[in-house]
Amino acid sequence: MDELTLVERLRSEIPEDIDVTGAERRWRDRALAGTGRRRRARRPLLLAGVVAAGCAGAVTVVAVTHRPVEPGMPPANVAAVLDQAADRAAADPVPRPDQFVHQDTVELRRVPNNGRWYKDRNQSWISVGGTAPGLFRLKNWIQPRPDEYVPLDGDSVIAPCGQRAPIDRPYLGDLPADPDALLRLLARQGDGARAERQWEAASDLIARPAPPGVRAALFRAIARIPGVRLRTDSVDAAGRHGVAVTRTRDGVREELIFDPASHRYLGRRDVITRSGDRLGARGSILFSSALMSTQIVDKVPKPRAGVAVDAC
After folding, report:
1. Looking at the structure, do residues 43 and 181 belong to the same domain, yes or no?
2. Domains in the chain: how many in total?
3. What CA–CA distance (Å, rounded) separates 244 from 236?
4. Region for 221 from its dihedrals, namely left if φ exceeds 0, alpha if ψ lies in -120 to 50, beta otherwise
5. Could you list the residue range(s) of the whole structural domain that residue 120 is in?
6. Residues with Cβ within 8 Å of residue 190, at least 6 apart in sequence
7. Is residue 13 part of a domain?
8. Do 269 and 142 fall into the same domain?
9. H or E element: which one contains 136?
10. Quick one: pLDDT at residue 107?
């Protein structure tokens, strides 16, 4: 690991909503006053470690990362949040190949071209083994205007997966249950810098059903992506508050939200971070979701009339 990567990871231990500029300046002034010499090139690395430890209230960064957190209290850093989420996920039941995972999700989106919001409810029944048809059910909660494109209500049958790559399947049953192996796989997806590819792929996978071991490994893999930060408060599409693991790119902060007490994944939110950006005003929300429930079931409901068939 090079020094720039280490600095970025150390600084990611500091929650985004804590301003450490003053602490950095005071530390630097005391250090320079004590030595009478100019700061060496490697000083920022040492500074980042001291500030991270000071803000977290511990002597060393390693001790902070693995410090247990009392239920209902905000975790100290990204690693603490995702370690707890991974431990919680690893204890979930393992479905049989002949079963289905039912997920109920609420999403809030901007209507293209006019900025109006629409809300929908997505329900999915995903085949664990990938050999049986699944079902996707969409329900809009607003009446679209004539000039708006809003996906129509209805059912879609999800075809069996066949020979599709494991990462492209709705159920992530064949992905590696190892954080390092997952990071290598994520880096082979999409475009851009390595960390951007990993984050984008992980953000897509986090909402899909997966075996407990794979889900736990994904959470721990996300903690190792450079540039990932922590926000101590965020809100999902259902209005639930949680802590958020975030990464900012192209003027948008993408937030993965977790319940601070149960450590379950709640949903996602995308927030504009630059004033005057073409996407909207700073602080505006572009998208949010809420995973309301996940259940293991034995059957899929009968599709409604006019059903479409989608690829796996």
Report:
1. no
2. 2
3. 10
4. alpha
5. 85-310
6. 196, 197, 200, 201
7. yes
8. yes
9. strand 134-140
10. 95
- The pTM of this model reads 0.75
pLDDT for 217:
98
Mean pLDDT by 10 residues, the chain (312 residues): 44 46 42 38 29 32 30 65 96 97 93 73 96 93 69 86 92 97 96 95 96 98 96 95 95 96 96 78 91 97 85 83
Assess if residue 76 is contained within a domain.
no
Residue 211 confidence (pLDDT): 97
Q: Are 216 and 178 in contact (CB under 8 A)?
A: no
Which of 13, 38, 67 is the endpoint of a domain?
A: 67
Q: Which residues of 16-52 are buried (b: 16+ CB within 10 A; e: fewer)?
A: eeeebeebeeebeeeeeeeeeeeeeeeebeebbbebb
**Residue 78 located in a structural domain:** no
62/14 same-domain check:
yes
The residue behind tokens 């470690």 is: 49
Residue 248: which of 281, 275, 233, 226 has the closest Cα?
226
Torsion of CA 181, 187, 190, 191, to 10 degrees: 180
Same domain, 50 and 100: no
Q: What CA–CA distance (Å, rounded) separates 182 from 208?
A: 15
Q: What are the DSSP E strand ranges found in 236-284?
A: 241-249, 252-258, 265-272
Kindly state whether residues 43 and 137 are assigned to the same domain.
Answer: no
Distance CA 267, CA 265 (A): 6
How far, in Å, are 17, 57, 76, 99, 233 from residue 73 at the CA level?
16, 14, 9, 36, 12
